[in-house]
Amino acid sequence: IIKACIREGYAFEKGIVMNRLQATKTSGGRRSMDHEKVIVIDFGGQYNQLVARRVRECNVYCEIYSYKTDIAQIKAMNPKGIILTGGPNSCYEADSPTCSKELFELGVPVLGLCYGAQLMMHVLGGKVEKAPVREYGKTEVMVDTSSPLFTGVSENTICWMSHFDYISKAAPGFNIVAHTADCPVAAAENQEKGLFAIQFHPEVLHTQEGTKMLHNFVRGICGCEGTWRMDSFVENTVKEIREKVGNGKVLLALSGGVDSSVAAGLLSRAIGKQLTCVFVDHGLLRKNEGDEVEEVFGPNGQFDLNFIRVNAQDRYYGKLAGVTEPEHKRKIIGEEFIRVFEEEAKKIGAVDFLVQGTIYPDVVESGLGGESAVIKSHHNVGGLPDHVDFKDIIEPLRDLFKDEVRKVGLELGIPDYLVFRQPFPGPGLGIRIIGDVTADKVRIVQDADAIYREEVDGAAQEYKNEHGKDAPWMPNQYFAALTNMRSVGVMGDERTYDYAVALRAVTTIDFMTAESAEIPYEVLNKVMNRIINEVRGVNRVMYDLTSKPPGTIEFE
């Protein structure tokens, strides 16, 4: 299938289509068709996967489908509820994504979010038009708490708005149950038909009681019991991997990060020495990380697998020389991963399967899973070059979010320090260095990052020792990045013209939305002093306060 698709022109950029065809066979969520299910219909919303994540937090299984999905197929899925996502279009324009009136006549509760709410009103006879006042960001919403959607919600609650259009008139049969100072229909409902429309985004953390609202819809209005659990995931996945692989040989790209480590643990339990893990030290890892990965997964580690380390630093630096465009860097790094794996596969003989540690956030930000635009590509889902020698792909974590992956890791007995290690992107420091990548720049960001993490970890431990609990400011992800800005400074009575390092730290639950961490000033000041004094080539340190959205967690 893969080679046929390549011949038809789907190579590399469009390769995610091939990955999707293969991955559905061994991805975690797709096997769970016996669970009660809510489906998300995607109209190009930025947060489509986040909606699904929030539904799963209610212990209800959720899948995402394009708005182009046939109504008969939706009906055949027998969903307990349907959620319509946001989107960038205006529903009243002729070429905008739409749905049939029949979707609202299935006898299944439907919740429209933002564009989905506007579309519901438009299709059912309401009126949507350009808003006289655009709303964007945190907005106070006044809700009618007698609505089952707002049970237990504060009468005045903060929600995340993001819209140019607004519902100027609710559809016949709908009651208005929420409004803002500038939006007369922030929410409307037709309880008799189980139809609910809300203009804001309950799925993002900026909406303070959004999880409660979605819980009200999924567990209350839809009547879901909440049977989706991770308890049996490991057992089922191990069984499926054994059946799929048989006596075949499997190759895994092991980075040492949480995702690839958990994937390695699953495969190791399922097939043991049939698995070969190739660890590519591309010279873009954190300081001393290559040796740390080998210590955990190498011959003296706890896993029953074959481990190969490939030192390919010079190869990567050569390929990346002079390349400054972020997507180009990602594509180069991703393709080189595949090339290295091909070479190693030939050395060890026939290899039947390639394992990738792809997870949901990788997929959504690569534009897969509905109608969303590409935010950034990931090497795991960027497609396969046209010389791939593997028969098939195994992506056991593809339908899981980061916190679900960590739960699987704990089920496998992987040490806590590895399971809860902060995320590290596949392209590594290549996307934490703005502009071209050189060995000297890698050295700068490695040293700065090591100092930053050491000081944050140390301060957090001191707080815990003193107060007996975790520091409230402790970030979920924190790292140093190297900007391409150089500026004048004075060090030792001499003029300098060196780089600026940016420190990034965020708090988040699911890595789909995030807030800047409020690390104490004295900690940041100590980090700044150490970096400037200890890292040659840096004379300025900055702290990034940007949330996600509008920014991303990584710099490129």
Key descriptive features of the protein:
globular, 556 residues, single chain, disordered N terminus, 22% strand, five-stranded parallel β-sheet, alpha/beta, nine-stranded mixed β-sheet
Shape: globular
Catalogue the unreliable spans: 1-33, 372-388
Q: Provide a count of the helices.
A: 16
Radius of gyration using CA atoms only: 25 Å
Q: Overall mean pLDDT score?
A: 85
Distance between the termini: 32 Å
Largest sheet: 9 strands, mixed
Number of strands: 18
Query: Helix fraction?
Result: 25-40%
Beta-strand fraction estimate: 15-25%
How are strands sequenced across the largest beta sheet?
A: 2-1-3-4-9-8-7-5-6
Estimated structural class: alpha/beta
Give a structural overview.
The model is unreliable at 1-33 and 372-388 (pLDDT under 50). Strands 2-1-3-4-9-8-7-5-6 form a 9-stranded mixed β-sheet, sandwiched between helices. It has 16 helices and 18 strands. It has helices spanning 2-10, 16-23, 48-57, 71-77, 115-123, 210-221, 233-245, 258-271, 289-297, 313-320, 326-348, 360-365, 402-411, 416-419, 439-467, 521-534, and strands at residues 37-42, 61-66, 81-84, 110-113, 127-143, 156-169, 175-179, 187-190, 195-198, 250-253, 275-281, 306-311, 353-355, 392-394, 477-491, 494-507, 515-516, 538-544. It is an alpha/beta fold. Helix 7 crosses helix 8 (258-271), helix 8 (258-271) runs parallel beside helix 13 (402-411) and helix 15 packs antiparallel against helix 16 (521-534).
